[in-house]
């Protein structure tokens, strides 16, 4: 589900003073955040309360203390942010509760994102007890060119993604592991993969499109099911690279063609699979573009153009959760209306329940929606 356009990262400059000496470095933010205007140096002598007050006053803190202490400071800042919500959560309205939760998380992320670290021109992190981050940063950002400042939370995300990239994610339906790159949505929710594995193929199907391929997991699954030509697309350059690598690693390099940036490739296919972002909303990073579909543009384009890309007996497989409907973010009539306008009919549906931990977390503010959520594969045909 890495179905997203990669953010264009423009390295602006960030300035601060260190021991009365002016300093500057490139500013790098994967979510496109502007460089902070006020930056002060901080180390182990700064208490969590002091750090929180400085951040709330508008300053960003460039961490120069111990690495592990910096991680502990992030946790302490998170606890303080959680103690002071911006307003009381709505009691019953799930849509309002969802918007409140997103706003709360944005505020929290802004506070945690005000703790910064500097990477030198070789991606070395010059902090006491710091791990070697050079390989992880090179994998995420490409070759180093100059020193840069990033948020501590972004660096931790880079390190976490690199571990996934090294160890891979087991996909039972595929009988193998796939290896997600940084900025590409990881297929840790297996129910949508299982639906694609279980859906009956149209009689005589040989070709398929996998739209918004991400890691390439669904393209690989279609190849494993015997389709002889699979074209996988994405608009995220990182996803295109990741899908090619996974196809080659799994032995499907000759079967799977990865192309982009685009949603639909040229031509027609017997099966066209699309697993668009499940929630309407504005994403703030490449990973969020795997969750939030701005103006529902991907869903709309997939349905509107599907008929022109199906063979006469072909099927389009739309894999989508109903969480948006449960939260009031999308009308239950929205998808049927789009299908009717596009001249499509629903031949069949396959439905399953999510199995991820949040689906049974009663403390989740959106528990009422998550416990009722279903994921459906719609088998669509031209009318």
TrEMBL record:
<keyword id="KW-0808">Transferase</keyword>
<dbReference type="GO" id="GO:0032259">
    <property type="term" value="P:methylation"/>
</dbReference>
<keyword id="KW-0489">Methyltransferase</keyword>
<dbReference type="Pfam" id="PF05175">
    <property type="entry name" value="MTS"/>
</dbReference>
<dbReference type="InterPro" id="IPR029063">
    <property type="entry name" value="SAM-dependent_MTases_sf"/>
</dbReference>
<dbReference type="InterPro" id="IPR050320">
    <property type="entry name" value="N5-glutamine_MTase"/>
</dbReference>
<dbReference type="InterPro" id="IPR002052">
    <property type="entry name" value="DNA_methylase_N6_adenine_CS"/>
</dbReference>
<dbReference type="GO" id="GO:0008168">
    <property type="term" value="F:methyltransferase activity"/>
</dbReference>
<feature type="domain" description="Methyltransferase small">
    <location>
        <begin position="178"/>
        <end position="321"/>
    </location>
</feature>
<dbReference type="InterPro" id="IPR007848">
    <property type="entry name" value="Small_mtfrase_dom"/>
</dbReference>
<protein>
    <submittedName>
        <fullName>Methyltransferase</fullName>
    </submittedName>
</protein>
